[in-house]
Specification:
five-stranded mixed sheet, six-stranded mixed sheet, alpha/beta, extended
Length: 576
């Protein structure tokens, strides 16, 4: 039954129970205790009887979430399924116990009831006697939702207070899995067999000879692995080195929930954490050893941060580090090798290195194949240097600094003005009731996205204009600079370090042994820092300067496991 017809009948004085509606219900309990599950059974029986006993209603099977909090709907699968089914027109009315069963979050309550009404579905809160088909329901819901929301807020505050009091008493909260210790009445007790591993990790790392990957391999060689018997991953080793409990210090308040509704958490800076020497925590390593290991870690982290994740060749162990990216996850590739197994050096997505195929099915690439591909690229660049120089000069020559830039910016600003006028008309339509709130929100968000996209384009044009103003003064100087770079004749690793911006690895036809490598070179300047993730993922604006099919040199595998490569090489024109 359409929304406006139901509301029309209600305004005439009819009760919701008098209308011919298809009716379902929603029930939820917040824990899985026997008492709560019994409450859920009671809710289900009540709603089934309540709906079926009304001769005007047609019963539709209900939706039930067990052991789920009401503060957010993100994990409430049945609730979200109910919203989708409502949009498909499966029912006209949802019966639920009360506002807090539907959602304690006010914004969620209003959002979903409005969304349901936009799809001709009402909600009847049985205990509160609220029916969203009623024109006065939104005001009442605001009042009820505010009360329910305050309940969650108070609960969040009580939990925070309890955590702080426990921290003051030195009681260990959180995970019971702390390598080297076991929990006994919320206190830490050393497990000597595990403590030996921790001491070895600190001693090796404090020598300064090992990065985390190399350290993991050395530990494995000595028969030292994690509690599951697997090779340590670098994140675990880093957490061990940084954990002050190992030198007998207590640490708490490392994260904090900043929004009790979304559960969003932030990491607290070191200086704001609760850290102090605690005689109740037995130290596994000396303060001197712990401090020495962390000084090394901090200095390496500072170096990487200063280089923006793209350290100079002298500061990076391998020329491909932080320059190869998985297209599936936009995660950088890591180097894998094992002296013990005498396997060839290969590169794989960081997710694969940590968790294997459960996390990523992107291709694994032999380093010998990467080197071979760059030998081919260097040959192509040298053989086609005149064409490359011409293409790059054409690019810069075609950028007219003044009139062309002003015209482009002016056109984009006109588009923004047109969209802003459309937004004003949209608001008028919403205020006079011509369109509902949901439709207004969708269209308004789309207009905002369009305006944001246009402003980004304007920003890029202004940046490009500044670059050209700074660099376009003498075309002969630019030509000489490009020619010098294209004439580069040094070895592969130096060429990669100087001019490779990034490689993005794709699977063709879902086959992890059939690779497409998109390789971006920057010949005008040194490689631009990539920061976090690849810069050119899903970038279809550039055309390759050449494409090459390359056979693998890694013949140690079975035929069906051997990689084949399609290589697309692009010139990136960005300038720092």
């Amino acid at each position: 039954m359409r929304f406006y017809k139901v509301r029309e009948e209600i305004l005439k004085g009819k009760n919701i129970a008098e209308l011919p509606l298809r009716v379902t219900f929603y029930a939820r309990v917040s824990t899985e205790s026997d008492e709560q599950l019994n409450s859920l059974d009671n809710q289900i029986s009540f709603f089934e009887d309540f709906i079926k006993s009304n001769k005007n209603w047609t019963y539709v099977k209900g939706y039930i979430d067990e052991g789920i909090s009401g503060s957010s709907v993100k994990k409430r699968k049945k609730f979200l399924q109910m919203i989708d089914d409502a949009k498909s027109g499966y029912f006209d009315l949802i019966v639920t116990k009360e506002v807090s069963r539907f959602s304690r979050n006010l914004s969620d309550s209003i959002k979903y009831t409005q969304e349901l009404l936009a799809n001709d579905v009402g909600v009847y809160f049985q205990s509160n006697g609220i029916n969203t088909y009623d024109p006065n329901s939104e005001f009442i819901l605001n009042m009820m939702g505010s009360v329910a929301q305050e309940e969650v807020k108070r609960l969040s505050s009580r939990v925070k207070w309890g955590h702080k009091e426990a921290m003051k008493k030195g009681r260990v909260l959180g995970s019971s899995i702390i390598t080297g210790y076991k929990k006994n009445d919320a206190k830490l007790v050393i497990v000597e067999e595990e403590a030996k591993k921790i001491r070895k990790i600190f001693k090796l790392y404090a020598t300064g000879k090992y990065g985390f990957y190399k350290l993991a391999m050395e530990l494995h060689r000595q028969g030292i692995n994690n509690y599951k018997g697997n090779i340590y991953d670098k994140d675990t080793l880093k957490r061990i080195i940084q954990n002050p409990k190992y030198k007998g210090f207590y640490r708490g308040h490392t994260t904090e929930t900043i929004d009790y509704r979304t559960k969003q958490r932030i990491y607290i800076p070191k200086e704001e954490q609760i850290i102090y020497k605690d005689e109740t925590i037995p130290a596994i390593v000396s303060e001197e050893l712990w401090n020495r290991a962390n000084e090394i870690l901090d200095s390496r982290s500072a170096l990487m941060k200063a280089s923006n994740g793209n350290a100079k060749r002298s500061e990076r162990k391998y020329c491909y580090t932080a320059k190869i990216f998985c297209s599936d996850h936009n995660v950088s590739y890591q180097r894998m090798s094992s002296k013990k197994k005498q396997t060839k050096t290969r590169w794989a997505c960081g997710n694969y290195v940590k968790y294997r195929l459960d996390a990523c099915e992107s291709p694994i690439i032999a380093e010998m194949d990467l080197n071979n591909i760059f030998v081919i690229i260097m040959g192509q660049v040298l053989n086609n240097k005149n064409e490359i120089i011409k293409e790059m000069l054409d690019y810069y020559s075609n950028l007219k600094i003044d009139n062309n830039y002003q015209f482009l910016i002016s056109e984009l600003k006109k588009e923004i003005k047109n969209i802003e006028e459309k937004k004003e008309k949209l608001l008028e339509l919403n205020m006079d009731g011509s369109i509902n709130n949901l439709e207004f929100k969708k269209k308004n968000e789309r207009y905002n996205e369009d305006i944001s996209s246009l402003n980004i384009k304007i920003g890029k044009i202004k940046q490009e204009r500044k670059i050209m103003s700074d660099n376009f003064g003498n075309i002969k100087v630019i030509k000489a600079a490009i020619k010098k770079q294209v004439d580069y004749k040094n070895n592969v690793s130096e060429f990669v370090d100087d001019f490779l911006e990034e490689i993005i690895v794709y699977k063709e036809d879902g086959d992890r042994h059939k690779l497409l490598l998109k390789i971006y070179l920057n010949l005008l300047k040194k490689t631009i820092s990539t920061g976090n993730g690849a810069r050119h993922v899903n970038d279809y604006n550039l055309l390759p300067i050449f494409t090459k099919e390359v056979e693998t040199l890694d013949l140690g595998r079975a035929d069906f496991q051997r990689n084949t490569f399609k290589v697309d090489v692009y010139l990136s024109y960005d300038i720092d």
